[in-house]
Amino acid sequence: MDGGSFSTAILLLRHAESEWNAEGRWQGRADPALSSRGRAAAERAGTLLPPFGAVVASNLTRARETAQAIARGSGCAGLAWVTPLLAERSVGPWEGLTRDEIELCWPGYLGRRARPPGFESDGSALRRLQAALGVLERDFRGSPVLCVTHGGLIHALEAWAGLPRARLENLAGRWVTLNDGAVTLGARDGRAAALPVSEG
Fold first, then answer.
1. Is residue 200 part of a domain?
2. Which domain range does residue 107 map to?
3. Does any domain span residue 195?
4. Region 177-184: what's the mean pLDDT?
C-alpha cells in the first residue's frame, strides 16, 4: 500500500497520577508507579477515549501502566511499542524534590522558569519526540495511535509550535497529525483527565 496519501492521527497523552505526583515531587527519569487513584483513573480512561489502532508508551512505569490499563479498557490487543524515546525529560538535581524544596535551594528559579544544570532542554526532548513520531508514522500510517508519554515532552512540542505554556493534567493530552514527516498540532484533549496533580 502506498502510505504517502494517508495522515496519521496521534493523541499524545500524559500518564495517570503516579505516587510521586500525589506527593508533589518532580519525577524526571525517576520511575515511581501509579498511585491507586492513578490506576483507577487509567482504567476508566479506556472507556472515555476513542478507539485506537495501536497503543504505545514511554518505558517509564507510570506511562506503561497507564497505557496497559487504557488498552485493556478499550479492547486493544496490548502495547505495540514501548520506548525510551518517549520518556520524561531529565530534571537533574530536582528529581524527587517538591516545589518548596526546589524554592529553598534554587530561590526564584521556578518563578523565572529557570532550570538547573542537568535539566534536559526543550530542544533535546523535542528531538526524541520527533524521532518517536517518525517511527509511529512509518509503522502505523493511517491508523489512530494513542501515545502515552509525559508532560515535559508535550510541553516541548507546544513550545516549538509557539503555544503559551499551560498546565497539562494527568490523562490530558494533545492531538497531532503526521503527514509525510510534517507535524500539525491539533486540540488538547482532556476528556479522560484526572484531578490536577503535580509536575511530572
1. no
2. 3-189
3. no
4. 94
**Identified catalytic residue from 17, 88, 120, 158:** 88
Q: Nearest to residue 52, comparing CAs of 139, 146, 175? A: 146
pLDDT digits (tens, 9 = 90+) for 13-30: 999 999 999 999 999 999
Tell me if 148 sits within 8 A of 13, measured CB to CB.
yes
- As given in the structure block, the three cell numbers for residue 191 are 476528556
Q: At what angle do helices 36-48 and 61-74 cross, to 10 degrees?
A: 40
Does the annotation count 88 as an active-site position?
yes
Segment among 71-80, 116-125, 163-172 with least mean pLDDT: 71-80
Q: What is the pLDDT of residues 74-105, one digit of tens each?
A: 777 789 999 999 999 999 999 999 999 999 99
How far is 175 from 185, CA to CA, in rounded Å?
6
Burial 160-181 (b: 16+ CB within 10 A, else e): beeeeeeebbbbbbbbbebeee
3-class state of residue 79 by DSSP:
strand
Q: Is 182 a residue whose pLDDT tops 60?
A: yes
Flag whether 166 is in a domain. yes
Annotation says 155 is catalytic: no
Does pLDDT of 200 surpass 60? no
The length of the chain in residues reads 200
Q: Which three cell numbers stand for residue 200?
A: 511530572
Residue 194 lies inside a defined structural domain of this protein: no
